[in-house]
Amino acid sequence: MTMKWSLQQLHKHNGRPFSFSENLNFEEEINGISDILGISEVEVSGVGQNVGADDFEFDLHIKTVLTLEDARTLDSVPYPIDIRVREVFSPDPKHADAYFVEKNTIDLRPLVWECILLEKPMRVVKEEITGN
Predict the structure, then answer these.
(1) How far apart are CA 27 and CA 47, in angstroms?
(2) CA-to-CA distance for 129 and 11, rounded, in angstroms?
(3) Cα gap 89→108, rounded to integer Å
(4) Where do the domains of the chain lie?
(5) CA 94 to CA 116: how far, in whole Å?
(6) Which residues contact 15 (CB under 8 A, 6 or more apart)?
């Protein structure tokens, strides 16, 4: 499973919510990002549902641990991420609040990566995370 569906596959659920769960690897994506030293397997689970015509809403739960560099000591610091996200996908370019569906395919992987990057702090200090 790749967290990628065609609209035809999604319409087979006849508007009923459907669940999914997958572990994703983003090791390749962190290459070239100097302040991310590592990333654990990303656990993604959620529910998708048709919310009108070819619009689909996805409620995602994303969990991973980034290994970041302490801003003071340069030590490795584990930074857990545990977020919930709700997004709509639509093939209608006029739907301003939705991700655009290209080639009749919804791919959640880029959204998951974007959410992880948005959660990454600009800088991290070990004592602030652990309270030591």
Answers:
(1) 25
(2) 44
(3) 10
(4) 4-130
(5) 27
(6) 49, 50
In this structure, what token pair is assigned to residue 125? 């200090």
Q: Which of 90-99, 106-115, 123-132 has the lowest mean pLDDT?
A: 123-132
Tell me the residue type at 43: E
Q: How confident is the model at residue 16 (pLDDT cuts 50, 70, 90)?
A: very high
Q: Would you give the DSSP letter of residue 125? A: -
Task: Compute the distance between CA of residue 70 and CA of residue 93 in angstroms, rounded to an integer.
Answer: 42
Which are the contacts of 72, defined by CB distance < 8 A and separation ≥ 6?
Answer: 125, 126
Locate 16 and state its tokens.
């009923």
Q: What single-letter amino acid sits at 26?
A: F
| Token digits of residue 131 | 């309270």
pLDDT in tens, 62-81: 999 999 998 888 889 999 99
Q: Are 35 and 18 in contact (CB under 8 A)?
A: no
- The single-letter code of the amino acid at 64 is T
Length of the chain: 132
| Closest by Cα among 38, 83, 85, 31 to 58 | 85
